[in-house]
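We close this part of the discussion by returning to an individual protein. Part of our work consisted of pairing the sequence of a single chain with a tokenised description of its backbone. The amino acid sequence and the backbone structure tokens for this protein are reproduced below.
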Amino acid sequence: MTVSVAISGATGRMGTLIRGLVDDLDGFEVHAALDSSSALDEMLGADVLIDVTHFDVSERATRFALEHGLNVIVGTSGWGQDRLAELESTIPAERGVLVVPNFSVGSVLSTHLASIAGKFYDSIEILEAHHDRKVDSPSGTAVRTAEAIAHARGSEVSSPNTDQRARGEIVAGIPIHALRLRGVVADQQVIFGGEGELVNIRHETLSNRAYVHGITLALQQASTQRGLTVGLDALLGLGG
């Protein structure tokens, strides 16, 4: 059985990569390649929508897909906890949404390690860098990392002087500092401060090829997903 895939954001950097992967992946085919001029009903007839756009487009496309019988993979930033909770309440029982803040397996592992380390330190900050054309900040990965740390701790981190603008955006009590620079693909450091020591958990993406394994895994699992799944963690056996 061939799984037909609609790609929202098909002409962007990630969308172009995904289209090539689907073309080469046994048992999958591109049903529709949607760009900013496409009508949402072009996805009708597909089994799965994979969305790599901007949040406002992603929200509309995801809801349309669910209403018309598609499962969805969301690779778009901006789906914070409140929005995810609202989305979860609207997913039909027979449908599933897999929200992937980062398709890099190394990034997922780094966030998982940071959530473990976060239980042992009270001084935590995140520094993330992406290419200068990324329109949102902080990144979805950084937000997900901060939320994962707070979840593992059972409470938000209490950072001092968070009212100062230079401290960055505060997510779950953790300051996140965002850089947007030419020549960068993606780089995240989670820095833990302790008595007489620093721990730095860093993941650097050197090319978009780092996303291939995660995209492939998401595509292979998407049709069988039910309800809401956030991150590749569960698909990799790392838990929720």
